[in-house]
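RESIDUES AND SHAPES:
===
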Amino acid sequence: MINKRVKQLRNKFNQFDIDGYIVPKNDEFFSEYAAINRLKIISNFSGSAGLAIVLKKKNYLFVDGRYTIQAQKESGKQFKIIEIHKFLPHKIIKNLTLGFDPSLLTRKQLKTYFGNSLMLKQINKNLIDEIYKEKASKTKAFFSLNNKVAGETFKSKINKIRNILKSNKADYLFISAPENVAWVLNIRGSDNPNSPIPNCRLIIGKDKELFLIAQKKKLLK
């Protein structure tokens, strides 16, 4: 199964003029445990942290010291297992063009992992999703916590944030991490398999503006 998926992925390389493709563990919300585990789809590795690079003739799976034995058992037949704290990708792979999904990797990660020895090509659709469609789970709406459970109302938290914005002469705060949105608004969700995190983002204005960015069907009515 993994060999078939790797082959399907490689068949995409000529279309995008790349020599390889980067597959991180996280999703676009940078959740450790995401509903769609693209790293497992392409490598069979089920650990909570890792990075795969599929090339035209070789495959690499970079993990930390917690997962070397597990990675070898789950993925060792198709991937060369590398301890990332010993060898960053740019120390092993050089002079190639690698494609990546820009929603899954930060600029800092790209610089740290790939340095200047590799050409990186942004591809604005995920190639793992192109070759394998994960069965979507039933969408569930976000839900609110009781104030007694939360310990503080969301209005109180937002007012504190707005006071900080005004004292720093800022107009807006953009909150990109879902766990931080969950804390501010006292909401939870069912978007991740192991934690009640609601996949969303939030913009708080210094006055009355408040924008919750999420799928409409997940929002409370």
Q: What stands out?
A: The mean pLDDT is 94.
